[in-house]
């Protein structure tokens, strides 16, 4: 069950299909307008890490966009575990997608009668590559700003990622692995897909809600871990100067997990190596992901549509 299967099974609107059969209607507003939401999750050793927290956020996003899902939270959780089981995966990245559904051309969502639900699971490594956990990544502070909080709602995990894609293109122009984006006021916001943390003078700092961030589930775990370590934590405005001159910088996210940033704007962060505090947080987070009490069992769940907690 640990290896990647040859023919990936994908859940599409109530049916399990092969990769070749899994298609989206060209009139789906998720395709036409990016009108939809998603969640990225991970499965570790046969347990989906914090599935309920991810599903709760998915439902909040759906409610905010007035998307009426045709399934309950328990049913969606069952579909997730069933998709993993059909692919015989123990460790996987999970992409859970909800689209507005099929409708006429035009941005009015009222013509879309039934939302779409897609679940993709793959045995994917850390988005930056498994080797980067040890050596860290480079980043560049890019010109593209994070959309202001009064322009889009960042707590919604929208399918529309154009803001991040533009920043990623700019990071590539600077030959950096990822981009650090500023908010409309010029303070640090987040990377293209991750939250930002800095360790400086014995304090852990991270941008807050006013900095146009999506408060990630991995971010919340890091905040809890830091408090368990009796570390002082501040959620506040952070200047680019503070970022560049920090003792350590790291990024957090489900797909990225926790990764150290060792160069910013082609300058080393401190000694240019992943720092001791970052490694301590990585280790503590790894213990959480390996602990069944934080997960939902994939194998041994009673039936599709019911979530069984270890």
Written description of the protein model:
The protein has 310 residues and is of the alpha+beta class. The chain folds into two domains: 9-124 and 292-297, Aminotransferase class 4, branched-chain amino acid transferase, N-terminal domain (D-amino Acid Aminotransferase, Chain A, domain 1, 2-Layer Sandwich), CATH 3.30.470.10; 132-274, D-amino Acid Aminotransferase, subunit A, domain 2 (D-amino Acid Aminotransferase, Chain A, domain 2). 26% of the residues lie in helices and 26% in strands. It contains eight helices and 16 strands. A hairpin with a 2-residue loop joins strand 3 and strand 4. The chain is globular and about 55 Å long.
Q: Terminal Cα separation, in Å? A: 19 Å
Mean pLDDT: 93
CATH topology of the largest domain: D-amino Acid Aminotransferase, Chain A, domain 2
Percent of sequence in beta strands: 25-35%
What's the tally of helices? Answer: 8
Which word captures the global form?
Answer: globular
**Biggest pleated-sheet summary:** 9 strands, mixed
What's the CATH first level of the largest domain? Alpha Beta
Which parts are unreliable, with pLDDT below 50 for 5 consecutive residues or more?
Answer: 301-310
Count the E strands: 16
CATH superfamily of the largest domain: D-amino Acid Aminotransferase, subunit A, domain 2
Assigned CATH architecture of the largest domain: Alpha-Beta Barrel
Helix content: 25-40%
Q: Structural class of the secondary elements? A: alpha+beta
Keywords: Amino-acid biosynthesis, Aminotransferase, Branched-chain amino acid biosynthesis, Pyridoxal phosphate, Transferase
GO biological process, one term: isoleucine biosynthetic process
Subunit structure: Homodimer.
Family: Belongs to the class-IV pyridoxal-phosphate-dependent aminotransferase family.
């Amino acid at each position: 069950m640990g290896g990647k299967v040859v023919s990936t099974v994908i859940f599409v609107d109530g049916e399990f299909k092969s990769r070749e059969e899994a298609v989206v209607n060209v009139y789906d507003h998720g395709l036409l307008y990016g009108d939809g939401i998603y969640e990225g999750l991970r499965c570790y050793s046969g347990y989906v890490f914090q599935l309920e927290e991810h599903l709760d956020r998915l439902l909040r996003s759906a409610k905010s966009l007035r998307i009426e899902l045709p399934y309950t939270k328990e049913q969606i959780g069952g579909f997730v575990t069933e998709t993993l089981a059909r692919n015989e995966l123990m460790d996987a990245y999970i992409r859970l997608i909800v689209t507005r559904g099929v409708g006429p051309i035009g941005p009015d969502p009222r013509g879309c009668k039934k939302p779409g639900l897609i679940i993709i699971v793959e045995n994917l490594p850390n988005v930056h590559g498994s080797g980067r956990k040890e050596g860290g990544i480079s980043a560049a502070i890019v010109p593209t700003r994070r959309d202001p909080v009064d322009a889009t709602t960042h707590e919604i995990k929208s399918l529309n990622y154009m803001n991040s894609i533009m920043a990623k293109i700019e990071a590539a122009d600077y030959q950096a692995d990822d981009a650090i984006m500023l908010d409309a006021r010029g303070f640090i916001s987040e990377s293209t897909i991750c939250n930002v943390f800095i360790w400086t003078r014995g304090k852990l700092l991270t941008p807050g809600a006013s900095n146009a961030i999506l408060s990630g589930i991995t971010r919340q775990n890091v905040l809890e871990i830091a408090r368990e370590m009796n570390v002082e934590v501040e959620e506040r405005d952070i200047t680019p100067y503070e970022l560049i001159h920090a003792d350590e910088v790291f990024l957090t996210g489900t797909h990225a997990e926790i990764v150290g940033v060792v160069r910013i704007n082609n300058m080393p962060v401190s000694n240019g190596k992943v720092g001791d505090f970052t490694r301590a947080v990585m280790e503590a987070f790894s213990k959480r992901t390996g602990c069944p009490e934080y997960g939902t069992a994939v194998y041994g769940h009673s039936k599709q549509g019911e979530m069984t907690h270890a």
